[in-house]
Amino acid sequence: MQLLTEGVYRLQKATGANAYLIDTGESSVVVDTGTRGGASALAAELRDERGVSPVTDIVLTHYDPDHAGTAAVLQRQTGARVWIGERDARILRGQDAPPTRFRRFLARVWPRSEVPADLQELSATEETEVAPGVVAIPAPGHTPGHVIVAWRGIVFAGDSVRVSKGRLVQMPGVLTSDRAQAEETERLIAARSPRLVCPGHGKPGRITA
Fold first, then answer.
1. Whole-prediction pTM
2. Which residues of the chain have pLDDT under 50?
3. 3-state SS, residue 131
4. Per-residue DSSP letters for 41-55?
5. Is the separation of the CB atoms in 169 and 61 below 8 Å?
6. Predicted confidence (pLDDT) per residue in 44-66, tens digit
7. Residues in CB range of 187: below 8 A, 6 or more apart
8. Could you give the C-alpha distances from 31 to 2, 79, 101, 115, 151, in angstroms and in order?
């Protein structure tokens, strides 16, 4: 694990996308899990780390397989609850089709992630405290049910934004389900004036521009 700031780690064994761990002092929350191919290594990284609190919760910022692919494996290893936005939960379960033509194409060529047991759905309109001080916030745009996670001035952004040269940057348009919502989510993140933004891809950084 790479220590980013007190209580916040970047998991080194996640594949495909960044995964993070928040140690609240009483319990730990994993934010995103990477692709299925990294499941064994990521589970071992969590199991072998003795300096952090037990993992009680996993928050998936969205349903894409590079973020949700290992969640079911980690759930079996840790017994943690798994949370995801309610609209993305329906896509992950196969109840709803992906929202754009390109995403429907990806669903045909990229196998859907295993659905964790007893999946906890996050409200599409209200914030949810998933663990003491750890809040999931509706942040649609990249996907219909995308959420961000906030803790002590840090925002775990998933694929809502990246950080480049001190600025928030949108993901490529072809991956965005709703551009207007994505831009509103970017404004939401900027308005929080986070001391650190931890994105799903690329390096964590601060907003300076």
1. 0.95
2. none
3. strand
4. HHHHHHHH--SSPPE
5. no
6. 998 888 889 999 999 999 999 99
7. none
8. 14, 15, 27, 16, 11
